[in-house]
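Input sequence (205 aa), recorded before submission:
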Amino acid sequence: MADHDHDHSHLSDMEIRVRALETLLTEKGYVDPAALDVFIDTYETKIGPRNGARVVARAWADADYRKWLLDDAAAAIATFGFTGRQSEHMVAVENTPDTHNMVVCTLCSCYPWAVLGLPPVWYKAPPYRARAVADPRGVLADFGVSLPETTAIRVWDSTAEVRYLVVPMRPAGTEGWSEEQLAELVTRNAMIGTGLALSPAEAAK
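Predicted structure, token format:
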């Protein structure tokens, strides 16, 4: 899974229709596939996840907000205006040295769009959905995440009723940082649980 090149043969009817429309528009010259790929990647990895990053940064910086987020994530997140379809019923789970959380949707691809943007292709792929439950530590290794054996891994199954936001551990060396600075350390994968927050050194690269 290192390159996340999964079998995409199990497409939903909606995905098939979207791809057919994309093909038609491309053939007629209305859409540049390369430009579309850049747009989708930008929304998946940059614009979309910035919402969730702001929520996590606030939780790192404000103990009262963190408690509220863990107690009632939907209400706490709504204060940012991040609401809507796919994000009505949110639960926040917090990573600690003892427990690492990871999110999957074993039945389809339920995902909190208003908070994390578009779901990545690998999140919807059958290999991830199956292995995340059967071998979560192996999946994390494929993403470059190595955790101590003493750290338990808890997998949360997202559904149409409940979607999850992982609150990663705050990196060391960020004392006194503003929420804006902290948000730059929060990646999409860290909020799914397939990654960790960036260290200050990693963010500076």
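Checked by second reader. Residues 13-204 form a domain with the Nitrile Hydratase; Chain A fold (CATH 3.90.330.10).
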